[in-house]
Write a structure and sequence with these properties.
- There is one protein chain.
- This protein is of the alpha+beta class.
- The chain is built from three helices and six strands, in the order ββββαββαα.
- Strands 4-3-2-1-5-6 form a six-stranded antiparallel β-sheet.
- Strand 3 and strand 4 form a beta hairpin.
- The protein is globular, with a radius of gyration of 15 Å.
Amino acid sequence: MKTYPIALELTVWFDLGLNQYEVSIDEASKISIKRTDDVLHSRELLATEVQMLIDAINAINVPVTSEVNSDPSSKPSSSYELIIESAHFSLEFNWESLDVEASKSNTFDSVVKLASLVQSLDLDH
């Protein structure tokens, strides 16, 4: 089955900088990665990688969670912004490592899984 094109953007902020991932799922699917050093890396995605991404996108759940009073001295080790867009939907998720650690119900699992999958496609990862 042919799907509508899907664009996925993931930005990860961490202590030493940031990584930006742009994925396009279309007839010629590809990933581009830009790191703090501003070097752009790109490559085409394999059919198996595209299918894994589509499966992970299909499994996305909106992370509804309770507000947690965190220790003000605790700093997140990383922050994430994940945007997924297609012809019929647009989703944006923002979370920090502390949100995932504080969640007792694993409510962030689907977005963390997709973000981890995108990061695993990195050529230098």
